[in-house]
Amino acid sequence: MALNYYKKEQNGKLEVGQVLYTKKFVLTVDRELCKGCQLCKLVCPRGAISLVPAQSTDGRALPPLVDVDESKCDFHGICAVVCPFSAIKITVNGLDELPAVQKDVFPTLTRDIAADNAKCKPGCDKCAQSCPLNIISVDTDAGEVDINRELCAGCQICWMECPEDAIEVTKFIEGTIKINAEECPAGCQNCLDVCPVNALGLDSDGKVFAKDMNCIYCGACLEVCPNEEALKVTRTAIRHTTVNSGAWHRGVEKLTSTAGLKRELAAENAGKARAAVKNLKTSEVKV
Amino acid sequence: MSQTNEQPRIGVFVCYCGLNIAGTVDIAQLMEFTKTQPDVVCVVENRYTCADPGQNEIKKAIAEHNLNRVVVAACSPKMHEPTFRKCVEEAGLNPFLFEMANIREMCSWCHPGNKQEATDKAKEIIQISLAKARLLAPLRRFKVPVTNRAMVIGGGIAGINAALDMANMGYKVYLVEKDESIGGHMAQLDKTFPTLDCSICIEGPKMVEAARNPNIEVISFADILNVDGFIGNFKVRIRKNPRYVIAKNCTGCGECADVCPVEYPNQWEMNLGTRRAISVPFAQAVPLIFSVDREHCIDCYKCVEVCGGRSAIDFEQKPEIVEIEVGTITVATGFDEYKPLDDDRWGYGKYPNVVTGLEAERLINAAGPTGGEVVRASDGKHPHSVAFIQCVGSRDVNKYEYCTGFCCMYAIKEAILIKEHEPDTEIYILYMDMRTNFKGFEEFYRRARELGVTFIRGKAQRVVEDKDTNNLIIQMQDTVLGEPIEVEAEMVILSTAGVPSAGTDELSRILHVTRGTDGFFLESHPKLKPIDAPVDGIFYAGACQGLKDIPYSVSQGSGAAGRAATILSKDIVEIEPIVAKVDPVKCLHTKANCTICQKVCPYGAPSAPDKEPMVINPAMCHGCGTCVADCPVDAIDQMHFSDAQIFSQIRAALADKPEEKIMGFLCNWCCYSGADLAGTSRFSYPTRIRVIRTMCAGRVDKDFVLEALRLGAGAVFVGACHLPTDCHYIEGNVWMKERMETLQKNLVTQGMSRERLRIAYVSAAEGLIFANIMKQMDQQLKDLGIDKIKAENDALRPNIEKILGKKGLLP
After folding, report:
1. Which residues of A make CB contacts under 8 Å with B?
2. 3-state SS of chain B: helix, strand, coil percent to 5?
């Protein structure tokens, strides 16, 4: 049978697929959820994902658009696993269950966000107001907070804004962001334009500064920054369920660094992962 | 057997061949004439020289007259040269001191109407043979040792059978397969026609037997890189591709595949289903060794973990190059199914419910991706109607002209199987002709009709899809009704052509074996050597030589084993000594780095280190003589077809009335045989031509043509095998064409009429064409007139003499 791949763009979604006689693999990217960060592109072992610069009409920078080469994609879904915004979905014969996750090859990210409704004061919806991704809704009469946890990117803004200390958020990507404003081209605020979680601000001199507290280290800003000296984002650790898999370690190494991977492997609960690395004959990483 | 430098003492034996010769040629005149020829010491006439009494006469005369050369004037050398060579050898004479004068096929049979002219021609044919005989030298056949091991390339059913037969005869066999498993296409089939045996059930045990046979080493997942050497002594370099699984540690348990998270299209399943990144292509694979596809593997090492202490998985594995020496090679590389993606008439690749025959086979097969359910790709439902379109790509002058041969039968088989699975399915077979001409085939065809399969005769023209139902509408011309009709079916199966397997082209280059215009390997002789490749020691089995079904492939596999055993069973093989030889003093490779001989040799026989004279490996030389003709300094000569011999033949042929004659150079395999056939078929033509036989038209030197013209020949004829691939020596005809067309252009600019150098391509089957060319040339010479020919030759002569004189070729 001729290999049958397709790609289509409809209803705000990019869909690529491979149709075999008995199997249908589909990957969709929700354009609304996708913020044009770089994580999927970085981890794809097939080099199937690219970012296409978006054309701005109003002078403000736009995040790039994800494109997937349907003939390269193998649909194993590490992209879907690492997407901070859960913008990527993969189905096999219509089932939304990744074999690689079921088989303990890829983990799920640990999205820790919880609201203590007991502490909530009726009438307050500061968390919902402040959430840059609009995933929190509040029943102000009852003082009940409803969070779409799957979509939480961990920016902690809600937590900072909450006057009652009723929400707690832990980032699932740890790292650092540094802006060397002297290197910024005059008037450029591309990073600020595209940051999905408002983690960048302008100071009184019109210079961009980073709010480390809120940054999720997704790297969307890096994709639009014209000078690589001006902006540094490093990821040091990813919080996820433990897995025992060379493929994931390689992913971690790509997202963070070899040091980051070593740190992950050195963690106390990483026994399974360390065992995997012993099998990982080709890796430079030694336990 | 000294006889080299002695004064020739020639015995000539003139054969009546009953009345075949004597009915036309005046034998008494011929005898008287022959007796007057220099160096002839005895002339004997015989009613049948080839019969025992005739042969005894030859032996007696050799002893009595102390003969050191023998000429038999009788039939074609293609008929009885081997007979008489053996005869003189038995009498103690070197067999290469024998020459034949063909006065039957090339004289009495083709000139029955004119006895005197035929007799005169016969005299000159004998003179030409005597001229060569005087210069014959005794030659010894080369003896080369034989490596008593065999290689089979391709592990389909033909290759497996060839390997098993040779192994059971006691020879060590290397069975090389490019895929991960042996089995070939037969392993993909559900049932076989016309008996409906389960295909893998009968092939599986053979596959296992091959793998277990202590004389067979299966080298799977490997590529042939290079083949050197010659009959009895081939050196084959093979690359074993890494499986990333250590064969001896892999138990074939399959636990690794269970944990593997990655799936990719399974080519062995015609991409209908998937396989894991670590897997075997199918459950019955032999050898049962898993392999990792590193292109799709994401290195999760789940397999390594589950394999555990067996430690079979090794991501560090590298390709391994091995060199193997064998005495024979059997090529059994099979065929591929044509995928009609380049022909949008059939909707293949465009409409989901259009599949090919082999894909349908996997759907019918219970071990296939659908578990034996014939379902539509569009909705997963059983089709209520299925239409087979026959001859997709085959019997199509715009695609593949040949008949694939097995599609009629497999369409019937698949139709019957679908009926068995789902009796209510309507089945149409749209055919041009049903070809059911082997054992049990016609009965099988009747069975399908009785089961209610509808056969519609006509040529399908286009398949279109109904967008709502995904049903297919086939537009066709019904040749019985004589009007266009439309057939609607829920599924369409295309019976597509078989094509030479991928890699056939490369392998033909590696092995120096020819392919026919259809792309399949070309046999040495279509009737008498259908299994032999043109290269000695290489044989064909199965569909690589031309499409064939399973029993035919199996038979040919056994046949190829038998043919190979004729070599493997000997300690030495003899090679004809008609090879080319380089004069190291004259060779230009020493100073000018000339490599023309290497360029024209298709067998890689000439070689030399830098600045040293070329040496032709006699075992690799096939004796075409192309390098001899193309050597710019005449440093190469060919044994038994030497320049001196041919020059003296030309001079003998043109001694008398040259302007009336055509000097003919005919290649042994095609044109000479075609001319023989003209005689055998009694196509009569004018007597002008005087024939000199060369093994290949590539041997025909420009100097031969020039010498003929210098001597005043009316015309020169060069007859070769058809272009591009008929040449017995791969491309001797191509080099001849290049050389002769340049010469012709040159001569024409110097005033020669173009038709006086005729280059023609005549196959062994084209006797009539040869006779017609002769008639045509006769007329052309008449039209030109002797005076014009003489005038043209006179004008050419000074230049020719200058050229030949420089080379010292003038008498």
Report:
1. 1-4, 18-23, 45, 74-76, 78, 99-100, 103-106, 244-248, 250, 275-276, 279-282
2. 35, 25, 40
Q: Do A281 and B315 touch (CB under 8 A)?
A: yes
Strand partners for B761:
B720
| Cβ separation A21–B298 shorter than 8 A | no
- B350 and B304 share one domain: no
Instruction: Select from B575, B595, B610 the last residue of a domain.
Output: B575
What is the residue range of A198's domain?
A: 173-234
- Helical residues (DSSP H) of chain A, grouped into ranges: 39-43, 78-82, 99-102, 126-130, 157-161, 190-194, 220-224, 246-255, 258-266, 271-279
Q: For residue B343, list chain A residues with Cβ-Cβ distance below 8 A.
A: none
Residues in B closer than 8 angstroms to A45, CB to CB, are 298-299
Q: Tell me the chain B residues in contact with residue A280 when contact means C-beta distances shorter than 8 Å.
A: 299, 301
Alpha carbon distances (Å) from B47 to B17, B21, B84: 6, 10, 16
The rounded distance, in Å, linking the Cα atoms of B590 and B362 is 61
Give the closest residue to B147 by CA, choosing from B228, B218, B237, B234. B234
The residue-averaged pLDDT of A184-200 equals: 92
| One domain for residues B443 and B457 | yes
Boundary of a domain, candidates A102, A122, A143? A102
Range of the domain at B744: 641-811
Number of other residues whose CB lies within 10 A of the CB of residue B593: 10
3-class DSSP state of B401 = coil
Q: Please write the tens of the pLDDT for every residue from B596-651.
A: 999 999 888 999 988 899 999 988 898 999 999 999 999 999 999 999 999 999 99
Q: What is the CATH number of the domain that holds A150?
A: 3.30.70.20
Torsion angles phi and psi, residue B489, rounded to 5: -145, 150
State residue B47 phi and psi, 5-degree precision: -70, -50
Cβ B301–A250 below 8 Å, yes or no? no
CA distance A95 to chain B (A): 15
Q: To the nearest 10°, report the CA torsion of A139, A145, A147, A153.
A: 120
Tokens of A274: 């360390």
Residue A13 parent element (H or E):
strand A13-19
Q: Which residue among B262, B272, B341 places its CB closest to the CB of A20?
A: B272
Give the count of domains, chain A. 4
- Selected residue of B297, B300, B353 to mutate for chain A interface (largest A Cβ count, 10 A): B300
Contact between B374 and B418 under an 8 Å Cβ cutoff? The reply is yes
Q: How would residue B1 be classed by pLDDT, with cut points 50, 70 and 90? A: very low
Residue B698 is encoded by which pair of tokens? 């590539």
Closest Cα in chain B, distance from residue A63 (Å): 29
To the nearest whole Å, the CA of A24 is away from the closest chain B CA by: 10
The answer to whether residue A126 is domain-embedded is yes
Please write the tens of the pLDDT for every residue from B670-700: 899 899 999 999 999 999 999 999 999 999 9
Distance CA B595, CA B530 (A): 34
Complex ipTM value: 0.89
Average pLDDT over residues B485-509: 95
> Identity (one letter) of the amino acid at B775?
K
Specify the range with the lowest mean pLDDT, choosing from A118-132, B634-648, B774-788.
A118-132
Structural contact between residues B440 and B195, judged by C-beta atoms closer than 8 angstroms: yes
For the entire predicted model, the pTM comes to 0.81
Same domain? B349 vs B442: yes
